[in-house]
């Protein structure tokens, strides 16, 4: 099915039944934009676009490695946990700062562990270091070192599959929010164009009246006025073209649904997850073309969400035990909060 089929209604073959996830996402869209249900055939038109976004996000998420056990005990044996945390004692201490993690365990008193999304800021630092090549040690070698900080846990699930489905739903909701932001920008632009049009017409009217009155009689600035009139008439024409491109206000609901379907049909333009594979030394130095036996390769995800002021975040799926949960500190840095 093409994008045009989602944008404009017409007779179509009977669609497949909606999955529970698609039904839940449709209900969520109605919360965000209740007027959607006033458009004819809105549900039949939006369901295929939603399905496309869900399939795309799920396909991307399938490339994310399985959840790792995040604990002090696995810091030495799991290269992922070793790379993400500077020391074994940091694992439980850092993760236990999450209010959402504590709230999840309180809501699930029988759960012994949870699966969670660990979001992190990734830092790459270039500098000189020591490198061993065979039996020789070379000094002042330019190296890249990776480090991870600002660890955040915001989304938890009972199982890994449950967690992955939550991620799919949240990312698709984010794509829908991008569509609503575009719609809001169009309405803001429409209001600005209306104000601009009123000012331009008032200015044109004043110039025309002056030209027909004493200025024309006395021959004062006739040519200057004519040039100004031409310039304003060109601005009014440009204003009319922009206004026409936004459509009529009477078609606003139809336009809103069309924009939402268009954005949901192009999920890659509004969110991107890149899988990055790096070979690291025990000191998190990036090694080119492999390295000594102590080096390991890890694969992690880099999420780029245009709506996020943080830009790029690394994330991994982790498994965290209730037994490792530490009490919340009294003060948390408000600036460290981030929703992935």
| Contiguous uncertain segments of 5+ residues | 212-218
Strand content: 15-25%
Number of domains: 1
Structural class category? alpha+beta
Cα radius of gyration in angstroms? 29 Å
The largest pleated sheet is described as: 6 strands, mixed
What share of the residues lie within helices? 40-55%
Mean pLDDT: 79
Q: How many strands appear in the DSSP assignment?
A: 6
DSSP summary: helix tally: 10
Q: Identify the overall geometry.
A: extended
**What is the element string, with H for helices and E for strands?**
HHHEHHHEEHHHHEEE
End-to-end separation: 31 Å
Short account of what is shown:
By secondary structure, the protein is of the alpha+beta class. It is built from 10 helices and 6 strands.
Plain-language structure description:
This protein is of the alpha+beta class and 340 residues long. It has one domain (1-197, 251-328, 336-340). Helix content is 46%, strand content 21%. It has 10 helices and 6 strands, in the order αααβαααββααααβββ. The chain has helices spanning 3-7, 20-32, 42-61, 79-84, 88-95, 99-107, 160-212, 214-218, 222-246, 252-264; strands at 68-69, 113-133, 136-157, 272-280, 296-304, 312-321. Strands 1, 2, 3, 4, 5 and 6 form a 6-stranded mixed beta sheet that branches. A hairpin with a 2-residue loop joins strand 2 (113-133) and strand 3 (136-157). Helix 3 runs parallel beside helix 10 (252-264) and helix 7 (160-212) runs antiparallel to helix 9 (222-246). The protein is extended and about 80 Å long. The model is unreliable at 212-218 (pLDDT under 50).
